Amino acid sequence: TAVVWFRQDMRTHDHPALLEASRQYDAVVPVFIWAPEDEGGAPPGGAAQIWLRESLRALSQDLHGLGAHLVLRRGRSYADVLTELVREVGAKAVYFNRRYEPWGQQVDRQVAQQLASGRVGVREFAGYLLYEPQEVGVGAGYTVGHWGTLMPFYKACLALGRPRRPLPTPERLASPSGVCSLTVDSLGLDSGVAPGGENWGASIRRAWPQISQAAALQQLRGFVR
């Protein structure tokens, strides 16, 4: 059994961590953890939390269609919640797509260290950017240590070759039954309704009636055309 930790990547298509876990393990436990206290940067605001709520609903449906159940947990520490979940399901490894914000990388290092101390494997993947930042080097002529304009950066990216093709969605997933999970509504995310009853989130839902992987792919196809 492997745990796949979802963060900013609410999708099943072109998800390196999910696909590789499905190939290496017979059972996969997808999990999303809401732990805003463990975020070094500013936690998602109210509008972002509405997007998160709807994205989690859509992701849960997508995973259900593949045979898996999305586990939702709430806590103060990502490392502690993951450690507890790993023990519950008897997982041998945790898979996730890496983050790039400094505070996100620090959290991921803490998670990896705590899991490794319990002899749990950790595998992280590049699943968020077209090119990994550490692979795009500043040329020797840039003594200030940064890109002055777009074109030198663009050419440095092209020198690495084309980005990889999108990865397929796993054909089928299997998850162990009986794993405890919160619901989207019980995570504590902002619902968009003020204490006085004003439904300020309704305008967001009207503007974006579908907040999902399918809607994002539709927007992408329209942009590419």
From TrEMBL:
**Which InterPro entries does the record cross-reference, listed alphabetically?**
Crypto/Photolyase_N_sf (IPR036155), Cryptochrome/DNA_photolyase_1 (IPR002081), DNA_photolyase_N (IPR006050), Rossmann-like_a/b/a_fold (IPR014729)
Pfam families in the cross-refs: DNA_photolyase
Can you tell me which residues the record assigns to a coiled coil? none
GO function term, MF aspect, one: DNA binding
Record-level GO BP terms? circadian regulation of gene expression; entrainment of circadian clock by photoperiod
Q: Which residues form the Photolyase/cryptochrome alpha/beta domain?
A: 1-130
Gene3D superfamilies documented for this protein: HUPs (3.40.50.620)
Q: Can you supply one Gene Ontology CC term for this chain's record?
A: cytoplasm
Query: What protein does this entry describe?
Result: Photolyase/cryptochrome alpha/beta domain-containing protein
* Record organism: Alexandrium catenella
